[in-house]
Structures are given as C-alpha cells and as structure tokens.
Amino acid sequence: MIKIFFFLLVLTTCSILVSLGQQNLFACPPSLCKLTSCSAPICFKDEILVPKGGICGCCDDCYTKLYAGQTCRYPFLGVGPFKGICVGGLICGNNNKCGN
After folding, report:
1. Which CATH number fits domain 38-100: 2.10.80.20, 2.40.10.10, 2.60.40.10, 3.30.200.20?
2. Which keywords does this Swiss-Prot/TrEMBL entry list (predicted)?
3. What is this structure's pTM?
C-alpha cells in the first residue's frame, strides 16, 4: 500500500513539474514581455522558427519539425506544443500524433 501511495505521489509531482514547463499553463504577468530581453534564435536544419513561440509568447523560439506519426503532445497531459510542431500541412490529432 505504501509503495502504491509513493508511486502516485511521484507521478503527480512529475506531472506538475512537466506542466509548469509548458507554455501558457502558468500565469504570465502582462508586463513580462516588456521586461524580457530576447535574442534571435538560430534554428538547426531539423527545426523551424516559431515567432513568439517561447514561454508566455515573449520571444521567438525554434521548434523541432514533426512529421507523420510523430508525437506532438504529451499523451498523459494532453498539452502542447512541447518545442515541436507538425509540418507539411499535418495537424496534431486527438491521438497526439501528427497526421492529416
């Protein structure tokens, strides 16, 4: 019984920590972007520049290009994007995968 409780506690804690790192899942003060200094990101070949794609939408960011069948959301939270974006006309489906 104690092992189950401990497992659930760890799982809940991890879920909360992951969700805090997700865009728009915590309160962004209205003045945050005015106080933020953004540097121009340099995207790699397998990335795409997403304007205002950083946390709170203040700065541009690079997201990994995702193709058909790739995971586009965290399945256990149902949130995203997580620095990845479906490309080539694909959308992130209800199955958390990029597709048509």
Report:
1. 2.10.80.20
2. Signal
3. 0.64
